[in-house]
Amino acid sequence: MSDTSLNLFGGAISAIAPSNLIDASTLRQVPDTQEVLLFPDSSISIIVEILQRVESNDNHDAVKFHFDSLAHNNDAVFSEVVSVNTVPNDRGDATPSAITLSGVQRVPKFNKTTPDEVRVLMALYRVIDKGIDLVVTFNIPVVTQDDGAVQGEQLEQAQQQFNRFARSLRIEDFSLFA
């Protein structure tokens, strides 16, 4: 599978991503503040979301807040942050550096008794002067009750795709956050 430069929010944001991703808005309604992308050959999803900036001035606390909010919204029965890192933007453009988080959540799906285990990879870009937190989330199911689990080489590829996406994300037009 080849990668391509993906235009998000009408070209206001770009990132390198697999060329075969499916735009979820062609399948269901997606809020204007989100871009949702689906992998055609797995249950992995990518959500790029424009959110109001959280109060914390500590970037690691801010990304953990967004992770905890996701766990709450998904009714997770367990969530754990594995690591938090800063990936500096050394390209020379105005896109903020990414604060990345790797974590695990156990989420009950479709009234099943045993929750799915989801690896959550998150990147936070804090656009302070616009009061915005731009959050990228890769949801990677690693234990499921159906055949949707991602393991081994496929899991490694998903991690590499997240790293490429997070490092390449570029805010092309800050007026998106007006």
From TrEMBL:
What's an example of a GO molecular-function annotation for this chain? guanyl-nucleotide exchange factor activity
> Mind telling me which SUPFAM superfamilies this protein's record contains?
Mog1p/PsbP-like (SSF55724)
Q: Does the keyword Endoplasmic reticulum apply?
A: no
Keywords attached to this entry: Protein transport, Transport
One Gene Ontology term from the biological process aspect of the record? protein import into nucleus
Query: What Pfam families would the database entry show?
Result: Mog1 (PF04603)
Question: Which InterPro entries is this protein grouped with?
Answer: Mog1 (IPR007681), Mog1/PsbP_a/b/a-sand (IPR016123)
Gene Ontology terms: cellular component: nucleus
Q: Which family does it belong to?
A: Belongs to the MOG1 family.
User: What is the name of the protein in this document?
Assistant: Mog1p/PsbP-like protein
